[in-house]
Amino acid sequence: MAAPTIHELTAAFARGEQSPVAVAESYLARIDTLDGRVGAYLTVMRDEALSAARASEARYRAGAPLGPLDGAPVALKDVFCTRGVRTTCGSRILESFVPPYDATMVERLRTAGAVILGKTNMDEFAMGSSTEHSAFHVTRNPWDLTRVPGGSSGGSAAAVAGGLAAGAFGTDTGGSVRQPAAFCGVVGLKPTYGRVSRYGLIAFASSLDHVAPFALDIVDTALLLGAVAGHDPLDATSVEAPVPDYVAALAGGVKGLRIGVPDEYFGAGLDPEIDRAVRAAIDVLRDRGATIERVSLPSTAYGVATYYIVAPAEASSNLARYDGVKYGLRVPGKDLIDMASRTRAAGFGAEVKRRIMLGTYALSAGYHEAYYGQAQKVRTLVRREFEAAFARVDLLAAPTTPGVAFTHGDKADPLAMYMNDVYTIPASMTGLPAVSVPCGFNAAGLPIGLQLIGRALDEPTLLRAAHAYEQATPWRHRSPALG
Amino acid sequence: MISRDDVEHVARLARLALSAAEAERMREQLSGILDYIDTLRALDTAGVEPTSHAVPLVNVMRDDETRPCLPPDVVLANAPDPSDAFFRVPRIIEE
Amino acid sequence: MAESTRYDTVIGLEVHAQLSTRSKMFCGCPTTFGAAPNSQTCPICLGMPGVLPVINRRAVEFGVRTALAFGLRVNAACRFARKHYYYPDMPKNFQISQYEEPLAEDGWLEIDTPAGVRRIGIQRLHLEEDVGRLVHEGDFAAAQASLVDYNRSGMPLMETVSRPELRSPEEAAIYLRAFRAVLVYLGVCDGNMEEGSLRCDANISLRPRGAAELGTKVEIKNLNSFRNVQRALEYEVQRQAEALTAGRRVAQETRLFDADRGTTRSMRSKEYAHDYRYFPEPDLVPLRLDPAWIEQIRAALPELPRARRQRFASQYGLPPYDAEILTQSRALAAYYEAAVGVHDNPKAISNWIMTELLRELGGDDEATVAKAPVSPANLAGLVRLIDEGTISGKIAKDVFARMLASGEDPVTIVRREGLTQVADAGAIEALVDQAIAANPKAVADFKGGKAVAAKALVGQVMKASGGKANPAMVDRVVQEKLSRI
Q1: Which fold has domain B1-41?
Q2: Nearest CA of chain B to the CA of C50: how many Å?
Q3: CATH of C425-484, one of 1.10.10.410, 1.10.150.20, 1.20.950.20, 3.40.50.10860
Q4: Which pLDDT score is estimated for C270?
């Protein structure tokens, strides 16, 4: 049986057919029973969730719910600061850190009445594509427990896919929500950069981090986005553009929509089953009235290299604060430098250390212009190519990932892991909104994702097309046989 | 292509204590990654402006108004070594 | 001292001024001085995970105002950058500052030195956040630990860098004083060096007299008063001259001034070049300042200290000493001009303010002057009464004391207390006659050649009149009558 969507649940709450408390309890019970195998959660917020569910129930009884998310059971990647609840970023260095404040997106979810079930597992400091780099445990793909759920937001993706939350949030920096969404057969949306406030999101790469929802369908995606989007005076990079009614904007279909298919996203390196599934998906869109044309984005080949300079450079800067002085892990040392060095050595895992080293190198004297300077210029070239494409089309359609979920331990070589992000990186670098929506399964029953990329702040068109595709296909009705 | 000295210098800059074995492994892995990244150098970016921000925003500032502070006990709640109302750290040796 | 004359001294000053905004540079914490440790912080200025900075518009306004006052060119397009280094007083282990695109560049400050007017170039002005404060646990030398207070972290700082055009320690102190005076005039900084609102680092090098190439630059830190700036630099000139004369190399290093000993000591045992790894701050968007806004700020600039001092000297005919004291604070200068506007005796009013009023006030800052118990109009009124001959200067002091106590105007006081000077010739003659008649010995002494005996008679008349007789007149009448005896 397919897990219920948020909009189905809250409609049932409004009709008095279901109780927010009972539903919260059933999710918590499922987590108790099944999460030992999946490993989606790091911290289950049992008491807080039930308390929020009771408040929600009281509101529904009084006929005064806060909105379409009231009582919705959601999970949050452990990268979002939650007041009074430990927030680890999947790292030993923050293992016991308890933030004294809520991230803005958490505040907004609470204001909407959402029930936060817990904090989910992630690659440490959001660096990774498999959720194998958490300091605490690995997360497993509910479709096949020997395989990864993707990363870095693997915990949130697995929670939604495995029916352990009705919706969830992660962060997408190079693909960390879209890729796990594709691997786990759920929807993952990376909004336009600046659409959702980053205040309280523990930073990995400031110019690339995006707050991004996971959901079982596009209506839920629209609801989750609508709850958190909008200008925040605490985030100077958040845009002031008004937040449209994303759910209302889903209607309308794709007739007359121009969709571009970039040459460089197909071909060598792409799993043939994914190629077939994505092309079939594009055909569905064509059948529904969209016009399809080829476009070219030559800089695609340089995306991974560019990203793996800019992101580690910014990360090396953002992670400099973790030194045992004010919060987090402290390993004693004979003097301050010794303490800081030992603390960071013990507190950070191998991938984080690797990226800090890479980023520090790219910014250091003598290499700054050749690496960081050059990468930021290539970013401009990538942006120009997208701008040229969007002069001719309204959306781009492509695969989300070059392969399906791989087995644990398969991509031990860092570079091989980085190549996972080849199709997702460009939308992160340009800040353009992009969504991964399920578009089928391979012969082994593993999910495949279709990626749609839109113009800046044009989530309405993006979601409208994704919704039309989703409604015309059966994929969302299939769930993993988790138990 | 990145030397052992480079690795040690960068590790010092980044305040990461690496064992000899780790430093060597790091050198190998970083060399491989940097070789790959070097493909970027071939791109002609003469006259291209760098992108520092994905959004074309300018002049975002706030009014000079005060907001409530955190109480000192909350400030120090996560401190590894609080001492009265201060954060205590080991002595600093000037390098 | 002989060695130091063989060398030219080259000094540049870096001044950090804490801006008098209500809130910090990137967060809403208050900026009041002296709060209990770690009681004036928030997640942002503590550098907690997940926080983001937002620029304080007034800090930018103050920076622009200062830039315009020193003739710098404001870079309408500028941005903030991260400057990386590890230190426990730096919550994020990077400081948000400005690097390649500072707020303003290329200005100057004119100073009055014994050798004449000199124009000192100011290379750049930029904004940044301040760091926290380290307190050593116990004795500095034996301390095993330090204690950190982040109240100061995130305070708005404005850094200005002068060109290396100061030629002596004395000039450096003059520059700093004049610089501070402008900042206080502009209202952007309270200039309190003891509280750390104004901090100064100096760069100094020596080169053989007349040589073109600059010598090795030494940075001096921890200069927290004008006097210490001068003392530290004087010591350095001596130290470097001795080294150079003895053929030794001067090490390029950073030295700390030890105020107790009056010496500088090396801060680092070997040369340590920081690699700050600057890159544009990704959490802040660039500034593109509106030229109209900049013009508004320019139009609102007050008359600056030096210009005002010169105007006081020429417009009011005041000696330089008076002009200096009266223009030290904008509030006092305004008080002066208000008084002179009521009664046109610039010198007398200047004297009254410099002696009587300032002694009463005990300070010349805006708050103190605003609470002055005697208003400019009343002070002027007092001087007018003297000039009109209504009261003597001596009586005026008495009236002033009463004005301080009651806040009343002088005319009312003089009338009520009957302090009007007696200047009626007949009345004075009568009093003098009485005194002469009552003091035959004094008269005899005077006749015997003791001219000073006349003073005793004058004193008697003044006493008999209750101090109200016009002293000059009494003196003249006494002399006249005595000469006719």
Answers
A1: Histone, subunit A (1.10.20)
A2: 15
A3: 1.10.10.410
A4: 44
